[in-house]
Structures are given as C-alpha cells and as structure tokens.
C-alpha cells in the first residue's frame, strides 16, 4: 500500500454547458521518501491536483487515499494530521512575526506552548530559516517565505508534504538551495509532491511528471510497483 494513492480520479467544476473538466481518470501513487514533481502550464489543473492530494478538495470521481484511508471521508482533517500543505508564500498580516505565526497553528491544535516553541525553532533551523524567527512575515523575501512556509508545515510532523511552485520568483541560487532542501527532506523519509511551472525545478526529483488536458503522464507509480513509462515527450524541448 502506497502512502498516497489516486485511483481513477476526476475533477470537474460547474454543470451542463458550463462544466469544466480539470482532471480526468488520474491514477497515481507516491511512497514515503519519494519526491515527485508535476509540471504543467498555468490552468492545467496542477494546483487542483495538489489540493486533492492534501484533502482540501474532494474528487468528482474516483478516490484519493492517504495511508489507506479515503481523504474525502475525513473532511479535511488529514491536513495537519499527517499531511502538510504549503502555499508559495507565507500569508501573515502586517506586523505578524514569523515565530508567532508558526506557534499559532500548533497551539490551536492543543500542543503545549513549550513543545510548540521547541518545534518552531527546530523547523526553522531544518529549513535554513532560523534567521527569520524574529522577522515580520511581510518583510520576508520570496525565498525566505518559501522556507518559512515549509517550516510551518514541518512543525506538525507530516508524512506527506504537498507544495505548490516552491521555486516561483526566486533567483537561481536560492532555487537550487530550495530544491536541495526538498530532496533532503525526502531522504529523511518525507513524501513530497510538488507542482512546478518550470522544468528546471525537476532537479532532485525521483519522478518527473507532466499534466496536460487533464491527463497525468509519466511514471505514475514507484519503480518497485510498476514498470517505467517514459514521458511521451520532453517538457519544454529539453
């Protein structure tokens, strides 16, 4: 049993003549310790797929399972209970401090202040964002915001991290460092699913997939579970 499983998953919005099919019959598996990157153009459904993986949305058809359980039946409760979801940037308010932002989410889940503080600084150090602890969330640059967003997810000890465009808007040096961070987290046993808008962000991934016209292409299961199915064509002509 894989940690994350998509079984013939479809997603559509609207009805009748206004119905829009975003994802169609997607079957996909991800194991602990794997880093899978999904490339797709804007509007391809890549962010929708990520939200389904995190249990933030339910599929229109098919089943998404995490650790063998149907995510649709958990009503979003898996988020923070085994699944971490990262947006491209930290969305704090004016004057909010990074360390306090990380603490709030833990305290809301009943974690003691002492434990939450310990987890906060450990997560910031793990992501290389320890220098941002006392910074205002509005003062972070793009790369720092990505690191802090990852740290916030790590405070709750996820088994799966779903992260949307982690290198968008960062310079090449910072991009490579963030990709190395994701690779090291996967090497520590965390399953990572990321959606990307540029093929340079494939670096370090165990599997590089592409999403187009609602279909996911590439090797859709770990090597030990299925034969290698090469991409139909190199994305971006590379």
Description:
- With about 240 residues, this protein is of the alpha/beta class.
- The chain has a single domain (about 5-95, about 160-235), classed as Rossmann fold (3-Layer(aba) Sandwich).
- The protein has helices spanning about 45-55, 100-105, 115-125, 140-155, 170-185; strands spanning about 5-15, 20-30, 35-40, 60-65, 70, 85, 160-165, 190-195, 205-210, 215.
- The protein has a 6-stranded mixed β-sheet, sandwiched between helices. The protein has a 4-stranded antiparallel β-sheet with strand order 2-1-4-5, covered by helices on one side.
- Helix 2 (about 100-105) crosses helix 3 (about 115-125) and helix 3 crosses helix 4 (about 140-155).
- The protein starts with a strand and ends in a 21-residue tail after the last strand.
- Mean pLDDT is about 85; it is low at about 225-238.
């Amino acid at each position: 049993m894989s940690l994350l499983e998509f079984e013939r998953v479809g997603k559509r919005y609207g009805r009748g003549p206004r119905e829009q099919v975003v994802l169609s019959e997607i079957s996909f598996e991800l194991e602990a310790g794997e880093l899978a990157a999904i490339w797709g153009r804007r509007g391809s459904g890549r962010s929708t797929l990520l939200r389904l993986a995190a249990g933030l949305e339910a599929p229109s058809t098919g089943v998404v399972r995490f650790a063998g359980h149907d995510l649709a039946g958990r009503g979003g409760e898996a988020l923070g209970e085994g699944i971490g979801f990262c947006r491209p940037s930290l969305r704090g308010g004016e004057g909010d401090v990074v360390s306090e932002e990380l603490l709030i989410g833990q305290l809301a889940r009943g974690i003691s202040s002492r434990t939450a503080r310990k987890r906060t600084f450990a997560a910031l150090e793990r992501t290389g964002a320890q220098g941002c602890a006392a910074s205002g969330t509005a003062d972070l640059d793009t790369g720092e915001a990505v690191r802090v967003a990852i740290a916030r997810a790590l405070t709750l000890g996820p088994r799966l991290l779903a992260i949307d465009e982690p290198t968008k808007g960062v310079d090449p040096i910072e991009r490579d460092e963030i990709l190395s961070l994701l690779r090291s987290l996967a090497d520590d046993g965390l399953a990572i699913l990321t959606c990307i808008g540029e093929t340079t962000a494939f670096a370090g991934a165990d599997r590089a997939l592409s999403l187009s016209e609602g279909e996911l292409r590439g090797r859709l299961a770990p090597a030990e579970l299925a034969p290698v199915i090469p991409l139909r064509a190199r994305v971006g002509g590379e």
